[in-house]
# Entry
Amino acid sequence: MARPHRFQIGGLFAATVLTTSALVLAQAPAPADAAAALKQSLAANQAALKTYSWVETTTISLKGEVKKQEQKNCYYGADGKVQKTPVPGAAAAPKQEAKSDGGGRRGGGRMKERIVENKVEELTEYMQKAAALVGEYVPPEAPKIQAAQAAGHFSVKPASGTVMHMTATDYVKAGDTLTIGIDSASKQLTEYNVKSYVEKPKDDDLTLNVTFGRLQDGTSYPQQIVLDVKAKNVQVKVVNSGYKKAS
# Structure
């Protein structure tokens, strides 16, 4: 791929739990140790994911109304990159037609249609930018984690109850925050939250939250990812399902 659209994320988090289990203690490990363990886990987790195929459903909504929906089969190719093919018969969201005034002023009607069409194009472009950010944050990438740690932007908090939190700032964009929670008892990821923005801080701040599921072999995977840009009433939802061993 020029660069695979990384909505597909599968079970890339499972090894994070396994490799960092020794770090998940009541006392927080050093950031460098936690970052190194997280880096190793990502590589191991990706190796596990390559044995699976799954279905990814991406839905983009504006003001609660679905504007676009895609469903694709995902699997790793021989080159180690995720391949995506449209699911046969998957229906896309119906397109909205521009409204005209229906009156006798045809010129005015056409002008209004062009204004509506231009607005729809602007919103479509913006929503695509928001959707692309899912792939920037999920899954966490070893080089980005390492860069955050090297810059002093990676911290680890002692377990609060049974959950330890790792936080990376300036992870993708200046001023953003990525927080990962790991349960010290089950050694499973419990939280994966992002605070960032699409174009301008405060103007279009976003939150991204991941809900995890588990496969039969115990692999933890991002079952649902929800990105919200409340100021623009834009939501991107990615659901991963139908995991099975790739042939």
